[in-house]
Design goal:
about 25% strand, binds S-adenosylmethionine, alpha/beta
Length: about 325
């Protein structure tokens, strides 16, 4: 067993470990291989997927207010930058000397960073391929102050305690004097939420199932992908959308050299997406060493955009 574990990378370890749990669970960051990143881009253009267009409009409407709060110059560090499609709005307002996009999807990151650098020759671009839940070391030759950018409500993929830990680690990475511009999805009518994660064209279903294709491709898997259904449900008590892959029938497969069996109706839990009220976002900020400076929402309160300031480290009395 330990030989197998040594031979497996992060993805393999997480899959073998996650499929042994009950209920079976695999973390959402593993969606994002090259194909997963491309499918996510398609999702952002779907009529049901309100977060991207709403957050983009909020960034456009408040770019100057944001720059007044963050100050101009310094460096922008983006966590989970993906295509960096919203970033130019922020860069035009803040005018940093450097931009550091961090993403786990390495090839997609390189292409996005190249395109951004070509469009902004006055900004130095330092792509960092890696997992932003690991300690991040920013290059020594980049000067702050640092503005963190964490759009897309990626924070929603973390359960509240893990979200606090992550935001605390961003605070430590960015240092005192930092600000964080963060997009957070709001609690709303469950029908709208469920439609956003289960679109009519089936793109989110393909995104979810791509995880199974990825296991087949990278971990020598034998999964019959068609034996799995995309399932989405809103859990009011937990304040989250859950995404699962549900076995349509009893099925057996091999992945990373291990055998697994699933009964009809059993699921692999692949994503949580927590939604927050304005009060909860303030609690989240304060619990993780940030002080809220501003919050904006659209007229229908579909999405919220925030600027937080790093609280100076202090000792409790
Ligand atoms: C929901 S998408 C958001 C993309 C983009 N920021 C936006 O606003 O549309 C999440 C992004 O974060 C990246 N990501 C997810 N988990 C990550 C992790 N643990 N470390 C680094 N990047 C991660 C994914 O590859 C993807 O690009």
């Amino acid at each position: 067993m330990s030989q197998l574990m040594n031979a497996l990378d992060d993805f393999g370890l997480a899959v073998v470990d996650g499929l042994r749990q009950s209920p079976k669970t695999i973390a959402a960051r593993f969606f994002y291989d090259q194909r997963g990143s491309e499918l996510f881009e398609e999702i952002t253009r779907l009529p049901e997927y309100y977060p991207t267009r709403t957050e983009t409009a909020l960034l456009r409407a408040h770019a100057d207010d944001i720059a007044r709060l963050t100050g101009q110059g310094g460096a922008v560090v983006e966590f989970g930058s993906g295509s960096s499609a919203k970033t130019p709005i922020l860069l035009r307002a803040i005018r940093p000397t450097a931009y550091l996009p961090i993403d786990i999807s390495a090839d997609f990151l390189d292409l996005s960073a190249e395109a951004l650098a070509a469009a902004h020759p006055d900004i130095e671009v330092f792509p960092i391929a890696g997992d932003f839940t690991d300690p991040i070391r920013l290059p020594d030759d980049v000067d702050g102050p640092f503005v963190g950018f964490f759009p897309g409500s990626t924070i929603g993929n973390f359960a509240p305690q893990a979200a606090v830990d992550l935001l605390r680690s961003f605070r430590a990475t960015l240092g005192s004097g930092a600000t964080l511009v963060i997009g957070i999805d709001t609690r709303k009518n469950p029908r709208l939420l469920e439609a956003a994660y289960d679109d009519a064209a089936g793109v989110t279903a393909a995104f979810n199932r791509n995880l199974l294709h990825r296991m087949n491709r990278e971990l020598d898997g034998s999964i019959d992908v068609d034996a799995f259904e995309h399932r989405v449900a809103w859990h009011d008590g937990l304040g989250r959308i859950e995404m699962h892959l549900e076995a349509r029938e009893d099925t057996e497969f091999r992945v990373a050299g291990q055998r697994f069996a699933m009964r009809k109706g059993e699921t692999i839990h692949t994503e949580n997406s927590y939604k927050y009220t304005p009060e909860e976002t303030r609690l989240l900020a304060r619990a993780s060493g940030w002080e809220p400076l501003a919050m904006w929402t659209d007229a229908d309160a579909m999405f919220s955009l925030h600027v937080w300031h790093a609280v100076a480290a202090h000792k409790e009395p």
